[in-house]
Every structure is written in C-alpha cells, then in structure tokens.
Amino acid sequence: MYKPYKFLSFLFVGLLSVMVFFSSCNKDDDDTPTDEIQLLSFGPSPALRGGTLQIIGTNLDKVSAVVLPDNIEVASFDSKTSEKIELTIPEETVEGHIVLKTPDGDITSLTILTISEPIVLASFSPEVVKPGDMLTISGDYLNLINTVIFSSDVAIGDTAFVTHTRETIEVAVPENAQTGTIAVSNGEPVPIVVESETELEVALPVISDMAPNPVKAGAMLTITGTDLDLVRVMKFAGTSAVTSFESQSETTIEVLVPADAHDGNLVLGVASLVEVSSENELLMVVPQISGIAPNPVKNGEDLTITGTDLDLVTAVSFGGGSNGSISSASETELVVNVPLEAVEGTVTLHTAADKSVSSADVLTLVVPTITGFSPEEGQFGDEITISGTNLDLVTSVIFGGDVSATPNMVAGDMLTVNIPVGSATGVLSVVTGNGTVVTSETEFALGLSTNAVINNMPTLASIGQMISIEGESLDELNEVIFPGEVPATMFGQKTATLIEVFVPEGTSTGVGNIKFITFTGEEFFSPEINIQGVDPVVDPGLVFFNFDGLDSWWGDTGGIENDPELSLDGSNYFRANGSLSGWTGFFWRNGGDNFPGGTIGTNIDGYVLKFDVNVIDPITGGVIQWRLKGSDGDYWHRWNPWEASGSYSTDGWVTITIPLNQFVDNFGWGSEVVPDLSNIDSDFGAAFNDGDSFVNICIDNVRFEAL
Fold first, then answer.
1. What CATH code is assigned to 120-202?
2. Over the stretch 181-226, which tens digit does the pLDDT of each residue have?
3. So what CATH class is 453-532?
4. Got the DSSP string for 421-453?
5. Alpha carbons within 13 A on the beta-carbon side of 209
6. In whole angstroms, what is the distance from residue 171 CA to residue 160 CA?
7. Is this model's pTM higher than 0.70 or not?
8. Residue 21: pLDDT above 60?
9. Fold of 540-706
C-alpha cells in the first residue's frame, strides 16, 4: 500500500524558499511611525495547501484577517504577535496577492503567493521487474516530474519516458537498477522528491544446478536456473572473472572452466554490480593414478604414470619434495623424469586448481652396489677404482674418518676417485644424488705411519672459540692448521688424548678439515668441521632488506630488533619468535620498491640470493618460503634444511646461499624458473608456511650476489 501523499525534499520547500519581501511605500525606516502596520515578507512561496504560511511585519497584532487568493478570508490564526502571523493555508487557495485587513485599511502584497501542486506517487506495477521491463508509475501531477530515481541513485530523465501524463509515467527499468524504493523528482533547483513506501524488487539470477560437478578445468560447465540472461560476469574461486560465455539464455549458461579455477562457490555478477553466489560449492576434478612404472626406477630415468585426467597435472613431486620434468602428458598417461635428488616415497601430482593426489604405491628407487675396489690400500692422493652396479648414480665417496671426495669419473659398473686427505682406514661408502648411502663389506686400508686417531671433536665451531679434540696418540701431532691454511697459535691442554685449541682469526668459514702435521712431517686431517661465519656484503646496491631503512611494509609476526647480544654488527635485524602454524608472513614489500632486480635482469644463472640468519632454537617443521612475484608470474623457493634431519639451528649467524634458478612457479613445486628479475614489480619477501614449529630466528642483509 502507498500513502496518498508522501513527500521528501518537497516538505522542505518552505524552509529553503526565500521569503517574499516588499515595502508598501518608499520611506526610510527612520521616518516610519512606530505604530504603523507593515507587511515586510511572507512565505514560503511556492507553498503547500494545508501547510503553514508565515507573515512577517510590524504591529501585526492589529491585523483582523488575511485574505488569500481567490478572496478566501482567514481570521483564525495559528499564532499572532506584533512581528509574525502564522496560519494554515486552506485547500481552496490559488496563486495571487495576499491582503491584510487592518484598522488602518487593507495592505496588499506587491508579489504573489504561488502554490505547489501536490505531486503524488500512488503506486507502481509490476512490483517485480527485470532490467528492460516496462514500469508503470501511477499518481497525480506526474506531468511535473522530469526524473525517475531507482535504488542506488540510478536516475532516468524524462526524455526516456515512454508515457508521461499527469497520472502516469512509463519507463524501462535500467540495467543497473537494484532492488529498493523508487522516487520521482521535479528537477527544480530546490527539488520536490516523492519516494515510494515499498520497494521495487529487481530480479536477480538464481542458480538451480551446476553440471557436471565435480567439473574438469577447461571443460564446459552448464549452469541452469532463472534470469541467467542478466549475468554479465562469472567468478570462479581462485581465478580471474570470466566475461565471455559459450552460450547464454534466461535459463542456461554454458561456460568453459578456467584452467586455474579452485574449489568454491560460483559467483554471478549483474550490471548493477550485485553478486549472487551458488548455494553449493563447485568442485574441481582431481587426477587419479592407476599405476606407476617401472617400480623400482632409476634416478634420472623416465617414470610412466597412468590414470585419468592426467592432462590437468602441472607438476609432479617425488619423495623429498623434488619436482620431476614432464616430457609428455595426455589424459591417461604422464611421462616424467625422476630427479636425481628424489628419494623413495609416494609420487604426488599437482594441478593449477591447487589440487594434489598421491600414488597408492610407494615408488622405490634403484640403488648402487659395491662389488670391490682396487687397489685395496693406498695413501692420500692416490686414485682407486670402485666396481659395482648403477655407480653412475654416485655423487660422492666417503672414506674412513668420514671424509668425502667427488669421483673423477662415473659409469654404470665403475668409478674412480682420489683418496682425500684426512681419510682413515675403514669401509668405503658411495652416496647418490638423493642421499642414499651404500657401504662396502670390506675395509679400505690407508697407509699412514702415525698412530694418531681422532675419536671425538665438534662438528660446529666459531672463530675465537676453544674446541676440544679427543683421540689417541695426539701427542704425535706437532702443528694444527685450520681451513684457509691458518695455523693455530693459542692452545689449552695438549696431551696424548686431548688437544684444546682456539679457532684462529682468518680461518675460512664453512665446511672444511683441520690439518695436523706430525713431528715427522706427515699430514693428518680431521673429520669435517663447519666453521661458522657470515659472508661480507659484496655489493650494498643489491641489498633489498637490511632493516635499517630497507624495511618491511607488512607481516604477520615478528619485527625489527636491535639487541646488542643478538645483532650481527650492531645494526637492526628482523626477528620472529613464537609458535607458528601455517602461513605466517615475516617481512614483505611490493611495487618493486627498492628492489634491485634491474641489475640482474635475465642473468638468473649468474646470481644467487644470500641472507644472514641466526636460528636460535631448532626449527622442526614447516618451510620458509621466499617469494619473487611480478609481471612474468609468481616464483618461490622453499627453504627447509630441517626437513631431512628433523630439526635445524645455526647456534650463531651464518650466510645462506640460494641459486636464483631455484625460484620456480607453483609455490616452489613447479619447473618454470623466474625469467627476468627486472619484472619483479609485486610482492617480494619471506613467510613461514606448510607446517607447525616454534620459530626463533633472526634474519639480516637479504641480498643478491654475482657468482
């Protein structure tokens, strides 16, 4: 139902209209007798019948009546004082001059009182419309209307009216109209606007079904429902909006599903920008694995995966998290090269829809065997030959004393290697690219005259730290020389079973061996020791996070600190310190802000990413994801050295080096390498993800460095 009269801005006309001023004679105020009756102004004009008319003047308390046009005498006032009269305008009033009845005679206004006609919006039909439908508005004095206003301030001028009479307006419902009240306006500078009391319902599309569901990326999806011809845009979860459909009618839309669509509700958008979401989620088809062959397979060779919907696969990951290179793909078969670093485990397929599925069977891998070596005895530097099978998988050989060497030559049935310094008598072990270790059944004899044996020593040490080396016949050792050919000069105890020595300044950082020289001049080497330290910043212009000006714009945890006991060099650093679960941002900027990628450009193989890190408490899970995102795509590196060992800490600052060609797409699981650092103009930074761990870590000097 509608009220007979409903006025909005219309009712403010009396307040906004200027009062009508005039004087009945041309006299200065100083010459006006104080008892003279004067009409100075009246208003509002235009006025509404039934509304209040105010008359302003002097000595108006002497007025006995007011005559309104046409000859309507009003003697009963709402209020009357010497300065103002208020009265209700009778319904019979028309335009004309007003007259004050006074003892001194009639006073007639110089200007006329005008009357506003009462614009009425009585009803509209139909009450439910679609854009393009004809809407009929009924009422009175609609001939004064020049604008129809739909919800959300969508205005239609009178040039678009199909019918325009005193009682009726017909107008087509615009495309961008929304459900809500409608209003009509006379378009005056101070407009009269009349609004409907009830809402006009503008139809929206309704989804009744989506088929097929689940649907395959790239396949045709059929959406059925009502008013689907109104749809202008369709939004699938995880991807850009789709504006082009294969077919569209009032009851059906056919659309190709984007390759990177994710599970989620389907959202339809109409011209009015209102969005409608499906009640049910649209699910994406997941590839299925029916078989993997051969099994076992040799690292570096091809694996054939059979199944269904395998053409959806964008990446294949193996045990250990390494990705294989896909050489061919069809709906039912994938051929992928097994990475050298892959370990035994399930094979996992990944899709652009962020779906993954793993094989039911564990993929086992071919391992080398050792059948013998010759000669069976040798000294440092001698070359020996190891015989066996699948030895072309070997990347290093470990001698007694836990000293490793890189083979000179590898083939399927043999390899050659030089005996490294520091070796001791013991079994030989070969290590493959995936970390598999195969040990000989017999020992290789190292010909040394010294009886010195090291039984225990630290695997980590810092420059300036005193370390203890325990063993036997250590009193045969005369000199202690650290990596970098730096001789030790400061000692604690030196006995046959213990040497206490300080790591000297200038020692090369990283993994190396301590060299001992016996009193007879024979060289003897320790097991590997990691001398902790940080690499210098070679080019300050390639630093893009130093937390001393090159700071983070946002992050979910941690912040900038400067604890003298933790700082690397007295400057600021970033620190995260808490229990983390799932995606947790560390530090981020975007827009290419102070990002030095232009120096590197496409020379990806010629540069590395370096950062200094102090992992205070062992990290036991998750991954730290470094991200470089730009116009070429989104590229990631997954840094998690704790994955193999179960935990990781550094016990001080160290420098980590990551080749830039290890930044790949698909969240770090893909095979496409970042092509051009000049185009990194979006997000760059680091975050914790994919797991749970207590993380107490400091990071500084994030930079690029030329090889």
1. 2.60.40.10
2. 999 998 877 677 888 989 999 999 999 999 999 999 889 999 999 9
3. mainly beta
4. TT-EEEEEEEEETT--EEEEEEEEEE--S---E
5. 6
6. 7
7. no
8. no
9. Jelly Rolls (2.60.120)
